[in-house]
Amino acid sequence: MKGIIFTEFIELVEQTFSIDTAEEMIEQSNLPSGGAYTSVGTYSHEELLALIGNLSRLTGIPVPDLVMTFGEYLFRRFSEMYPMMFREITDPLNLLSIVEGHIHVEVKKLYPDAKLPSVVAVRKTDKSMELQYQSERPLAIVAEALIRGCFKFFGKELRLERIDEAGRNGCAALFRIEVLN
Fold this sequence. Notes:
Elements: H1 3-16, H2 19-29, H3 45-59, H4 63-81, H5 92-97, H6 99-110, E1 118-125, E2 128-134, H7 140-153, E3 158-164, E4 172-179
Antiparallel strand pairs: 1-2, 2-4, 3-4
Helix pairs in contact: 1-2, 1-4, 2-3, 4-7
């Protein structure tokens, strides 16, 4: 997993809680990297899971709530860091439709060694789609959080159903998405 995910997570923790909380979270996680991340480095997704778990223990906030907050934050940060990927996109379904064929292609140009999930979107109507997520990492919940962040970015409400593929432990899910406004 690319280091930018880690650096942004730690930045969120420092902004939302404190630098001391971020340091304690890292220290309690006993990470192979020692918690020293660079945005272009590559790290195990298990380190992110350990950080989130320890932040949950430190703050008393459930892991799913922390992941949702992080995903929404991360989507906003991506829009700020890579505005060229968001140009001329006017609604969340249009953006989700181009993740696999455009955004992931651009990400691979920036980070050739990135191991990206497969994100296949199929429009059902002008206000709905199904999105199939497949990854070697159990991060379907992060995909859900990014989808929610996408809708917040565009100021839209959504109905979202995540159906996890049995036996895949968060590595594969079908998202049914509908724009409500």
